[in-house]
Protein backbone atom coordinates (compact mmCIF):
# COMPACT_ATOMS: atom_id res chain seq x y z
CA UNK A 1 0.00 0.00 0.00
CA UNK A 2 1.36 3.44 -0.92
CA UNK A 3 2.49 5.72 1.91
CA UNK A 4 -0.36 8.20 1.43
CA UNK A 5 -2.96 5.52 2.22
CA UNK A 6 -1.19 4.49 5.43
CA UNK A 7 -1.31 5.86 8.94
CA UNK A 8 1.76 7.14 10.73
CA UNK A 9 2.74 8.71 14.03
CA UNK A 10 0.24 11.36 15.17
CA UNK A 11 -1.84 10.88 12.00
CA UNK A 12 -4.90 12.28 13.74
CA UNK A 13 -3.30 15.74 13.33
CA UNK A 14 -0.30 15.35 11.00
CA UNK A 15 -1.35 13.97 7.63
CA UNK A 16 2.10 13.73 6.07
CA UNK A 17 5.76 14.76 6.26
CA UNK A 18 8.02 15.77 3.39
CA UNK A 19 11.71 16.54 3.02
CA UNK A 20 12.89 18.37 -0.11
CA UNK A 21 16.53 19.01 -0.96
CA UNK A 22 17.28 21.47 -3.79
CA UNK A 23 20.55 20.75 -5.60
CA UNK A 24 22.22 22.04 -8.77
CA UNK A 25 25.04 20.58 -10.80
CA UNK A 26 28.41 22.23 -10.36
CA UNK A 27 29.68 24.63 -13.07
CA UNK A 28 26.48 24.56 -15.14
CA UNK A 29 23.74 27.12 -15.75
CA UNK A 30 20.56 27.04 -13.68
CA UNK A 31 17.41 25.69 -15.37
CA UNK A 32 16.02 29.11 -16.31
CA UNK A 33 19.19 30.12 -18.20
CA UNK A 34 20.48 26.77 -19.49
CA UNK A 35 20.36 25.60 -23.08
CA UNK A 36 17.71 23.00 -23.77
CA UNK A 37 20.38 20.64 -25.11
CA UNK A 38 22.22 20.77 -21.76
CA UNK A 39 19.05 19.97 -19.86
CA UNK A 40 18.16 17.05 -22.15
CA UNK A 41 21.69 15.69 -21.80
CA UNK A 42 21.31 15.63 -18.01
CA UNK A 43 17.96 13.84 -18.33
CA UNK A 44 19.52 11.18 -20.54
CA UNK A 45 22.37 10.58 -18.09
CA UNK A 46 19.99 10.33 -15.11
CA UNK A 47 17.79 7.91 -17.03
CA UNK A 48 20.84 5.76 -17.75
CA UNK A 49 21.97 5.66 -14.10
CA UNK A 50 18.51 5.39 -12.49
CA UNK A 51 18.96 1.67 -11.81
CA UNK A 52 22.44 2.33 -10.45
CA UNK A 53 20.91 4.65 -7.85
CA UNK A 54 18.75 1.83 -6.49
CA UNK A 55 15.54 2.28 -4.48
CA UNK A 56 13.51 0.98 -7.43
CA UNK A 57 13.64 4.38 -9.12
CA UNK A 58 12.30 4.80 -12.65
CA UNK A 59 12.37 7.91 -14.80
CA UNK A 60 9.14 9.34 -16.17
CA UNK A 61 9.39 12.30 -18.52
CA UNK A 62 6.63 14.86 -18.30
CA UNK A 63 6.27 14.92 -22.08
CA UNK A 64 5.26 11.24 -21.98
CA UNK A 65 2.66 11.71 -19.25
CA UNK A 66 -0.98 12.62 -19.78
CA UNK A 67 -2.36 15.80 -18.25
CA UNK A 68 -4.42 13.66 -15.88
CA UNK A 69 -1.38 11.69 -14.72
CA UNK A 70 0.52 14.90 -14.00
CA UNK A 71 -2.41 16.40 -12.13
CA UNK A 72 -2.77 13.20 -10.08
CA UNK A 73 0.82 13.74 -8.94
CA UNK A 74 -0.05 17.33 -8.04
CA UNK A 75 -3.05 16.13 -6.03
CA UNK A 76 -0.76 13.76 -4.14
CA UNK A 77 1.58 16.73 -3.49
CA UNK A 78 4.44 15.00 -5.31
CA UNK A 79 5.07 17.65 -7.95
CA UNK A 80 4.21 21.35 -8.05
CA UNK A 81 1.42 22.76 -10.25
CA UNK A 82 4.00 25.01 -11.98
CA UNK A 83 6.17 22.00 -12.84
CA UNK A 84 3.16 20.12 -14.25
CA UNK A 85 2.32 23.10 -16.47
CA UNK A 86 5.74 24.39 -17.51
CA UNK A 87 8.16 21.48 -17.32
CA UNK A 88 6.84 19.43 -20.23
CA UNK A 89 9.77 19.78 -22.65
CA UNK A 90 12.66 19.45 -20.21
CA UNK A 91 11.20 17.98 -17.00
CA UNK A 92 11.08 14.49 -15.54
CA UNK A 93 10.70 12.67 -12.26
CA UNK A 94 12.52 9.73 -10.71
CA UNK A 95 9.93 7.81 -8.72
CA UNK A 96 9.68 4.45 -6.97
CA UNK A 97 6.72 2.11 -6.77
CA UNK A 98 5.81 3.06 -3.19
CA UNK A 99 5.92 6.73 -4.27
CA UNK A 100 7.66 7.78 -1.06
CA UNK A 101 10.47 9.05 -3.31
CA UNK A 102 9.80 11.54 -6.09
CA UNK A 103 12.79 13.43 -7.45
CA UNK A 104 11.88 16.37 -9.69
CA UNK A 105 14.38 16.99 -12.49
CA UNK A 106 14.50 20.55 -13.89
CA UNK A 107 11.71 22.08 -11.88
CA UNK A 108 13.25 25.29 -10.49
CA UNK A 109 16.57 23.59 -9.71
CA UNK A 110 18.39 20.83 -11.58
CA UNK A 111 17.43 18.26 -8.95
CA UNK A 112 14.86 18.40 -6.15
CA UNK A 113 15.04 15.29 -4.01
CA UNK A 114 11.75 14.63 -2.24
CA UNK A 115 10.90 11.95 0.31
CA UNK A 116 7.50 11.47 1.91
CA UNK A 117 6.05 9.74 4.95
CA UNK A 118 2.64 9.39 6.53
CA UNK A 119 2.18 11.16 9.85
CA UNK A 120 4.98 12.96 11.68
CA UNK A 121 8.15 11.26 10.46
CA UNK A 122 10.58 14.00 9.44
CA UNK A 123 13.67 12.26 10.78
CA UNK A 124 13.38 9.12 8.65
CA UNK A 125 12.40 11.18 5.60
CA UNK A 126 15.58 13.25 6.09
CA UNK A 127 17.73 10.13 6.39
CA UNK A 128 16.36 8.78 3.11
CA UNK A 129 16.83 12.14 1.36
CA UNK A 130 20.46 12.34 2.50
CA UNK A 131 21.12 8.81 1.20
CA UNK A 132 19.72 9.82 -2.20
CA UNK A 133 21.64 13.10 -2.15
CA UNK A 134 24.92 11.23 -1.61
CA UNK A 135 24.20 8.73 -4.39
CA UNK A 136 23.25 11.42 -6.93
CA UNK A 137 26.15 13.66 -5.86
CA UNK A 138 28.61 10.97 -6.91
CA UNK A 139 27.27 11.34 -10.46
CA UNK A 140 26.58 15.08 -10.49
CA UNK A 141 28.84 17.10 -8.16
CA UNK A 142 26.78 19.87 -6.57
CA UNK A 143 27.19 23.63 -6.81
CA UNK A 144 28.48 24.59 -3.35
CA UNK A 145 29.96 27.77 -1.90
CA UNK A 146 32.13 27.65 1.21
CA UNK A 147 30.37 30.68 2.73
CA UNK A 148 26.81 30.33 1.44
CA UNK A 149 26.39 26.56 1.16
CA UNK A 150 24.41 24.87 -1.64
CA UNK A 151 23.57 27.29 -4.45
CA UNK A 152 19.97 27.32 -5.63
CA UNK A 153 17.89 29.11 -8.25
CA UNK A 154 15.87 30.91 -5.56
CA UNK A 155 17.91 32.82 -2.93
CA UNK A 156 15.47 31.74 -0.18
CA UNK A 157 16.72 28.15 -0.55
CA UNK A 158 20.47 28.89 -0.46
CA UNK A 159 22.41 27.20 2.34
CA UNK A 160 21.05 23.78 3.14
CA UNK A 161 18.58 23.84 0.24
CA UNK A 162 16.25 22.04 2.64
CA UNK A 163 12.52 22.49 2.93
CA UNK A 164 10.98 20.33 5.63
CA UNK A 165 7.20 20.45 5.61
CA UNK A 166 4.20 18.83 7.23
CA UNK A 167 0.55 18.75 6.22
CA UNK A 168 -1.67 19.20 9.26
CA UNK A 169 -5.41 18.90 9.91
CA UNK A 170 -6.61 21.52 12.41
CA UNK A 171 -10.42 21.37 12.76
CA UNK A 172 -10.30 21.75 16.54
CA UNK A 173 -8.35 25.00 16.47
CA UNK A 174 -10.47 26.24 13.56
CA UNK A 175 -13.81 25.56 15.27
CA UNK A 176 -12.68 27.04 18.60
CA UNK A 177 -11.53 30.19 16.79
CA UNK A 178 -7.87 29.85 17.78
CA UNK A 179 -6.24 28.73 14.55
CA UNK A 180 -5.15 32.20 13.35
CA UNK A 181 -3.54 33.03 16.70
CA UNK A 182 -1.66 29.72 16.90
CA UNK A 183 -0.41 29.90 13.31
CA UNK A 184 0.72 33.50 13.83
CA UNK A 185 2.80 32.36 16.81
CA UNK A 186 4.37 29.68 14.60
CA UNK A 187 5.24 32.30 11.97
CA UNK A 188 7.05 34.17 14.74
CA UNK A 189 9.25 31.10 15.20
CA UNK A 190 10.35 31.17 11.56
CA UNK A 191 7.80 28.83 10.04
CA UNK A 192 5.87 29.34 6.81
CA UNK A 193 2.13 28.59 6.63
CA UNK A 194 0.64 27.80 3.23
CA UNK A 195 -2.35 26.15 1.61
CA UNK A 196 -2.47 22.51 0.66
CA UNK A 197 -0.70 22.99 -2.69
CA UNK A 198 2.05 25.29 -1.42
CA UNK A 199 2.78 28.85 -2.45
CA UNK A 200 -0.21 30.97 -3.58
CA UNK A 201 -2.68 28.15 -2.84
CA UNK A 202 -5.74 28.27 -0.61
CA UNK A 203 -6.34 26.56 2.71
CA UNK A 204 -9.11 23.97 2.34
CA UNK A 205 -10.74 21.43 4.63
CA UNK A 206 -8.89 22.79 7.71
CA UNK A 207 -5.61 21.54 6.20
CA UNK A 208 -2.42 23.63 6.29
CA UNK A 209 1.12 23.10 5.04
CA UNK A 210 3.81 24.22 7.51
CA UNK A 211 7.50 24.45 6.60
CA UNK A 212 10.77 26.10 7.58
CA UNK A 213 11.68 29.55 6.25
CA UNK A 214 15.37 29.64 7.22
CA UNK A 215 17.74 27.55 5.12
CA UNK A 216 21.08 29.33 5.70
CA UNK A 217 23.09 29.66 8.92
CA UNK A 218 21.50 26.49 10.31
CA UNK A 219 22.09 22.77 9.79
CA UNK A 220 19.65 20.35 8.20
CA UNK A 221 19.29 18.52 11.50
CA UNK A 222 18.52 21.77 13.32
CA UNK A 223 15.81 22.65 10.77
CA UNK A 224 14.13 19.28 11.22
CA UNK A 225 14.45 19.32 15.02
CA UNK A 226 12.93 22.81 15.22
CA UNK A 227 9.98 21.87 13.01
CA UNK A 228 9.53 18.61 14.95
CA UNK A 229 9.43 20.50 18.25
CA UNK A 230 6.91 23.04 16.94
CA UNK A 231 4.72 20.26 15.53
CA UNK A 232 4.64 18.54 18.91
CA UNK A 233 3.39 21.81 20.45
CA UNK A 234 0.82 22.24 17.67
CA UNK A 235 -0.43 18.66 18.09
CA UNK A 236 -0.87 19.32 21.80
CA UNK A 237 -2.88 22.50 21.13
CA UNK A 238 -5.06 20.84 18.47
CA UNK A 239 -5.87 17.89 20.73
CA UNK A 240 -6.71 20.28 23.56
CA UNK A 241 -9.07 22.17 21.23
CA UNK A 242 -10.73 18.88 20.25
CA UNK A 243 -11.29 18.01 23.91
CA UNK A 244 -12.94 21.40 24.41
CA UNK A 245 -15.24 20.76 21.45
CA UNK A 246 -16.08 17.30 22.79
CA UNK A 247 -17.46 18.83 26.01
CA UNK A 248 -20.51 19.85 24.00
CA UNK A 249 -20.95 16.30 22.78
CA UNK A 250 -24.41 16.69 21.26
CA UNK A 251 -23.32 19.67 19.13
CA UNK A 252 -20.19 17.87 17.89
CA UNK A 253 -21.92 14.55 17.25
CA UNK A 254 -24.68 16.35 15.35
CA UNK A 255 -22.13 18.19 13.20
CA UNK A 256 -20.18 15.00 12.45
CA UNK A 257 -23.25 12.89 11.64
CA UNK A 258 -24.79 15.64 9.49
CA UNK A 259 -21.60 15.63 7.42
CA UNK A 260 -21.64 11.83 7.26
CA UNK A 261 -25.32 11.84 6.30
CA UNK A 262 -24.75 14.22 3.41
CA UNK A 263 -21.74 12.26 2.17
CA UNK A 264 -23.72 9.01 2.38
CA UNK A 265 -26.81 10.23 0.56
CA UNK A 266 -26.03 13.19 -1.71
CA UNK A 267 -26.39 12.96 -5.48
CA UNK A 268 -23.84 15.62 -6.40
CA UNK A 269 -21.01 17.18 -4.47
CA UNK A 270 -18.66 20.07 -5.19
CA UNK A 271 -14.98 19.76 -4.31
CA UNK A 272 -15.19 22.45 -1.63
CA UNK A 273 -18.22 20.85 0.01
CA UNK A 274 -16.57 17.45 -0.12
CA UNK A 275 -13.35 18.66 1.52
CA UNK A 276 -15.26 20.37 4.32
CA UNK A 277 -17.41 17.31 5.02
CA UNK A 278 -14.38 14.99 4.91
CA UNK A 279 -12.64 17.27 7.42
CA UNK A 280 -15.63 16.90 9.73
CA UNK A 281 -15.94 13.11 9.45
CA UNK A 282 -12.17 12.71 9.90
CA UNK A 283 -12.49 14.63 13.16
CA UNK A 284 -15.38 12.40 14.19
CA UNK A 285 -13.45 9.25 13.29
CA UNK A 286 -10.30 10.38 15.11
CA UNK A 287 -12.33 11.15 18.26
CA UNK A 288 -14.15 7.81 18.14
CA UNK A 289 -17.53 9.49 17.57
CA UNK A 290 -18.04 8.05 14.09
CA UNK A 291 -17.70 4.27 13.99
CA UNK A 292 -18.87 3.81 10.40
CA UNK A 293 -15.56 4.96 8.86
CA UNK A 294 -11.91 4.11 9.41
CA UNK A 295 -8.60 5.81 8.65
CA UNK A 296 -8.12 4.07 5.30
CA UNK A 297 -11.56 5.08 4.07
CA UNK A 298 -10.92 8.68 5.14
CA UNK A 299 -7.68 8.74 3.16
CA UNK A 300 -9.41 7.25 0.11
CA UNK A 301 -12.23 9.78 0.39
CA UNK A 302 -9.73 12.62 0.48
CA UNK A 303 -7.65 11.43 -2.48
CA UNK A 304 -10.07 9.76 -4.88
CA UNK A 305 -12.60 12.61 -4.87
CA UNK A 306 -10.11 15.12 -6.25
CA UNK A 307 -10.71 16.18 -9.90
CA UNK A 308 -7.83 14.41 -11.64
CA UNK A 309 -8.25 11.18 -9.66
CA UNK A 310 -11.98 11.15 -10.34
CA UNK A 311 -11.40 11.48 -14.07
CA UNK A 312 -8.56 8.95 -14.02
CA UNK A 313 -10.80 6.38 -12.33
CA UNK A 314 -13.68 7.20 -14.71
CA UNK A 315 -11.23 6.77 -17.61
CA UNK A 316 -12.44 9.89 -19.41
CA UNK A 317 -12.65 13.66 -19.03
CA UNK A 318 -15.53 15.04 -16.97
CA UNK A 319 -17.14 18.46 -17.03
CA UNK A 320 -17.54 20.13 -13.63
CA UNK A 321 -21.20 19.12 -13.27
CA UNK A 322 -20.34 15.54 -14.23
CA UNK A 323 -17.50 15.55 -11.69
CA UNK A 324 -19.91 16.59 -8.94
CA UNK A 325 -22.20 13.67 -9.76
CA UNK A 326 -19.30 11.24 -10.06
CA UNK A 327 -17.80 12.54 -6.80
CA UNK A 328 -20.98 11.71 -4.89
CA UNK A 329 -20.96 8.19 -6.37
CA UNK A 330 -17.29 7.72 -5.47
CA UNK A 331 -17.87 8.84 -1.88
CA UNK A 332 -20.71 6.37 -1.41
CA UNK A 333 -18.73 3.56 -3.04
CA UNK A 334 -15.85 4.09 -0.58
CA UNK A 335 -18.19 4.36 2.42
CA UNK A 336 -19.88 1.08 1.49
CA UNK A 337 -16.64 -0.86 0.92
Describe the structure.
The protein starts with 13 loop residues before the first strand and ends with a helix. The strands form 2 sheets. It has an 8-stranded antiparallel beta sheet, covered by helices on one side. Strands 6-7 form a two-stranded antiparallel ribbon. It contains 12 helices and 10 strands. The model has no long low-confidence stretch (mean pLDDT 94). 40% of the residues are buried. It has 337 residues and is of the alpha+beta class. Helix 11 packs across helix 12. It has 2 domains: 3-241, Glutamine synthetase/guanido kinase, catalytic domain (Creatine Kinase, Chain A, domain 2, 2-Layer Sandwich), CATH 3.30.590.10; 248-336, no CATH class. Helix content is 47%, strand content 15%. The longest helix is centred in the last third of the chain and has 28 residues, at 220-247.
What order do the helices and strands come in, and which of them pair?
Layout: E1 14-23, H1 36-53, E2 58-61, H2 67-75, H3 81-86, E3 92-95, E4 102-105, E5 111-118, H4 122-137, E6 144-145, E7 149-150, E8 162-169, H5 171-175, H6 179-188, E9 191-194, E10 207-212, H7 220-247, H8 249-265, H9 271-286, H10 295-304, H11 307-314, H12 320-336
Antiparallel strand pairs: 1-5, 1-8, 2-3, 3-4, 4-5, 6-7, 8-10, 9-10
Helix pairs in contact: 2-11, 8-9, 9-10, 10-12, 11-12
Amino acid sequence: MNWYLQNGKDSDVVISSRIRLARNQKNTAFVNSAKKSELLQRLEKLETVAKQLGYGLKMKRLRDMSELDKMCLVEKHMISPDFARNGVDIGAILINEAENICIMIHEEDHIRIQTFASGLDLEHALELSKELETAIGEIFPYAFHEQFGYLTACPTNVGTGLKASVMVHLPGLTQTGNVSKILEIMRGFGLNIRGVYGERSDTRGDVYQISNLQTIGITEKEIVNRLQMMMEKLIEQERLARRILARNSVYLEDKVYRAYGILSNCRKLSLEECENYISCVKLGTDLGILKELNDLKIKKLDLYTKPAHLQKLANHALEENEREIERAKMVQKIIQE
